[in-house]
Amino acid sequence: MGWEVGTFMATAGKHHVIIKGVKDGLNFLLDDSCELATVLEELRHKVESTHDRILTGPIVRVQVRLGKRSVSDEEKEEIRAIIGQKGNLLIQSIESDEPEPLVGTAAPITMLKGMVRSGQTLSHEGNLLYMGDVNPGGTILCTGSIYIMGSLRGMAHAGVDGDEAAIVAASHMRPTQLRIAGIISRPPDEWGFQEAFMEYAYIKDGRMEIDKLNGLHRMVLA
Prior knowledge:
Order of helices and strands: EEHEHEEEEEEEEEEEEH
Function: Cell division inhibitor that blocks the formation of polar Z ring septums. Rapidly oscillates between the poles of the cell to destabilize FtsZ filaments that have formed before they mature into polar Z rings. Prevents FtsZ polymerization.
Number of strands: 15
Helix content: 10-25%
Number of domains: 2
Largest sheet: 6 strands, mixed
Protein name: Probable septum site-determining protein MinC
Keywords: Cell cycle, Cell division, Septation
CATH topology of the largest domain: Pectate Lyase C-like
InterPro entries: CAP/MinC_C, MinC, MinC_C_sf, MinC_N_1, Septum_form_inhib_MinC_C
Low-confidence stretches: 1-12, 100-105
Mean pLDDT: 82
CATH class of the largest domain: Mainly Beta
CATH architecture of the largest domain: 3 Solenoid
Pfam families: MinC_C (PF03775), MinC_N_1 (PF22642)
Number of helices: 3
């Protein structure tokens, strides 16, 4: 099916529901930037009125794409009920787009913000995106990878349970100590440069290496 169904123009002048013909059937693309009730109102209008004649005929497989919107099971059932009014529309899936994982991890990541001061320890299960600074004497411990959007001037220990695939990345990398699994880095004074911006640390051949973040994809694809 190489055609695109015409779209309904919402009162605000924006299309909240777009129906596209694809090789295997129809894709219903639902806007994720407005209230779900607004989207469902337009979806119902399309199914019942403006697209009534187009959405009839033989069995057609339907994929519903929600963008970045998360919906409950009840809300999915409401979407199914609206589209299911047309007995020929067979819903195959109702899915949100998968969030792009941070490079270096395919696992979920938690975001926290603040400041880790001297004498404080922040412990976390999994991967952590930390929005803030880690001061000298402060410590971050994670079972997964650590991404710091700020200055790392304390200690960071990623992969504390032994995960040598974990990394430590920071906007400004000047730690008192870095650890990944059981590997401890050389002191920053031995890295060969005075200041480190947008760097990450990783394990290679049993030792810790420091590199620019823009080179991280090479490790992932290796």
